[in-house]
Amino acid sequence: MKRSYLKRNKGFRTDRPRKPLKRGKLAPRRKNRSQREILRDKAWQTFSRWIRARDKKCVTCGSVADGQAGHFYHGVLDFDEININRQCARCNKWLHGNLAVYSNYLLEKYGEQAFKDLTKRHYTAMKGELRSEQDYIKIVEKYGTP
User: Fold this and answer.
1) In this predicted model, what pLDDT tens digit does every residue of 88-99 receive, in sequence order?
2) What kind and span of H or E run contains 70?
């Protein structure tokens, strides 16, 4: 059976002229960031660097390559020392935190009561809770390099 032109090219016809693409306005420029947003980024960089120095290997698989600060709970406990531990990029990004192994690690390291407290803090904290600029400055001072 002879293959047709469309089957050979998976349905795309290349001999037909194409319409020019419509171009809209250029993407709007990024708005100026507030001092609070700049301080939050600095605090996160400092805290993340401290976490990666504290834990020498991935807490879920043991890899020492490509360390990241992996969250057990996202959103409200961003600067919690129990909630955030070092993970490799594979576990943190591609395995979406590898949470089954991560929970076992937290239970072994901190105990059942601390794990329950972490879960309680996660569910009772307000989503999108705002920290002040002073909170971020304190985080940078606490976890920054001396």
Assistant:
1) 999 999 999 999
2) strand 67-71
Of all residues in the chain, the percent with pLDDT exceeding 90 is 55
Nearest to 136 by CA among 49, 71, 41: 41
Provide the strand spans (E) within 3-99: 67-71, 84-88
Q: Minimal CA–CA distance to 86: which of 59, 105, 110?
A: 59
How far is residue 57 CA from its own chain's centroid?
18
Q: What is the pLDDT of residue 77?
A: 87
Query: Quick one: pLDDT at residue 28?
Result: 62
Burial of 80 by CB count in 10 Å (0-12 exposed, 13-18 middle, 19+ buried)? middle
Cβ pair 82, 110 in contact under 8 A: yes
Note whether 136 and 38 are within 8 A (CB).
no
